[in-house]
């Protein structure tokens, strides 16, 4: 029986560096890269651009589209996805992949500064408060490791690669 393909989800609020690190990890690991923002509807993007957070009615088709994409493309993948709610994270655990998460955690003020300096993204810094409010902290979810984003990008990449070896330990002949 073939092993399930691996899915590594880089999660965190907007501005935490998910996309940047996910792209780097996909390249390092030889995995496909998947950006959750690409699966939002035009309506959802417009709503966020107006500074209005999404409700579950707009999140549901987004989650369904991402899960369907993964099921139709069962290849090792790194996904940049906010993962704010536990039940939404659970959906990715159920798509048939060997799924693990890295939570990019950082201080509100640091992330807000990042968002204010970011150009060309529909997500305004004003929504950061709602994302922190909506974030259900990973508790009793052993497949999630936390990385603090205060480190420089090269250090963060190194730490993420080390975390992956904890998330997916190398199997020996005895294991």
From TrEMBL:
<dbReference type="GO" id="GO:0046316">
    <property type="term" value="F:gluconokinase activity"/>
</dbReference>
<comment type="similarity">
    <text>Belongs to the gluconokinase GntK/GntV family.</text>
</comment>
<dbReference type="InterPro" id="IPR027417">
    <property type="entry name" value="P-loop_NTPase"/>
</dbReference>
<dbReference type="GO" id="GO:0005737">
    <property type="term" value="C:cytoplasm"/>
</dbReference>
<dbReference type="GO" id="GO:0005524">
    <property type="term" value="F:ATP binding"/>
</dbReference>
<keyword id="KW-0547">Nucleotide-binding</keyword>
<keyword id="KW-0808">Transferase</keyword>
<keyword id="KW-0067">ATP-binding</keyword>
<protein>
    <recommendedName>
        <fullName>Gluconokinase</fullName>
        <ecNumber>2.7.1.12</ecNumber>
    </recommendedName>
</protein>
<dbReference type="GO" id="GO:0005975">
    <property type="term" value="P:carbohydrate metabolic process"/>
</dbReference>
<comment type="pathway">
    <text>Carbohydrate acid metabolism.</text>
</comment>
<dbReference type="InterPro" id="IPR006001">
    <property type="entry name" value="Therm_gnt_kin"/>
</dbReference>
<dbReference type="Pfam" id="PF13671">
    <property type="entry name" value="AAA_33"/>
</dbReference>
<keyword id="KW-0418">Kinase</keyword>
């Amino acid at each position: 029986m073939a092993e399930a393909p691996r899915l590594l989800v880089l999660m965190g609020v907007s501005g935490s560096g998910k996309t940047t690190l996910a792209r780097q990890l996909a390249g390092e690991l030889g995995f496909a890269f998947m950006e959750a923002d690409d699966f939002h509807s035009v309506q959802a993007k417009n709503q966020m651009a107006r500074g209005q957070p999404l409700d579950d009615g707009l999140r549901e088709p987004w989650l369904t589209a991402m899960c369907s994409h993964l099921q139709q493309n069962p290849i090792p993948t790194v996904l940049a996805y906010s993962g704010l709610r536990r039940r939404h994270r659970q959906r990715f655990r159920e798509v048939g992949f060997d799924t693990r998460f890295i939570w990019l955690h950082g201080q509100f003020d640091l992330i807000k500064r990042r968002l204010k300096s970011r150009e060309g993204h529909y997500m305004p810094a004003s929504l950061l408060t709602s994302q922190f409010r909506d974030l259900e902290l990973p508790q009793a979810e052993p497949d999630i490791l936390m990385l603090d984003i205060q480190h420089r990008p090269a250090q963060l990449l190194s730490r993420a690669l080390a975390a992956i070896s904890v998330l997916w330990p190398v199997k020996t002949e005895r294991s």
